[in-house]
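ok trying this again, last paste got cut off
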Amino acid sequence: MGQRNHLHHIKSASQPLIQESFPLNEHPAMVQISYSQLDIHNESDIKALQTLISVDLSEPYSIYVYKFFLNQWPNLCYIARDAETSQVIGTIVSKLEPHKGTRSRGYIGMLAVKTAYRGQGIAKKLVRLSIEEMIKSGADEVMLETEVVNAAAIRLYENMGFLRSKRLFRYYMNQHDAFRLILPLTERSVVRSTFLEPLKDPADAGKLKDDMDLLTANLSTSSF
């Protein structure tokens, strides 16, 4: 991955954009969750983001991969925080670039939610926030890859409108296959090759614990 000559530093929001309340499975009391764009100057949040992602994702990433995303597209990178403890409990890292000179493509590179907070729709909220920001910036489509065995992720993304475009064999370092999924946003995106049929039963893609927040949109350096 070559170093970019021009980094676009976009001032990100320091205040939570949205707050939600829900009961955690392990805690009967209501918990406030806040969402905000990542502040690239907050080193503690960036370290928390790295730790959270390293637990969930199947690919190891260096600090340079994080900086590639965070320095150029901080407006597309969000964190979810336990408002009571200020702990970072979820994150999404994305980018937006021209694709083949014909359209603007958003890319969800990393998505993770802390185990104790899963099953509450946090990942879905993070995805929506990032996509909404991409739309504001003129995205024609959004792309991601996820492991073929990650049935929960496939089900969630297809319910949000994503379509499987292809299967990538032995895509990850663990030799697992991946599905590439694309969310068309404009006519520029739909003028393309045909998509795969949606899975009638997501369990056919592989067995995985049925948790809607076990989402891993894995990043491959080949996408740069």
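PB: full thing came through this time. Residues 122-136 form the longest helix (15 residues).
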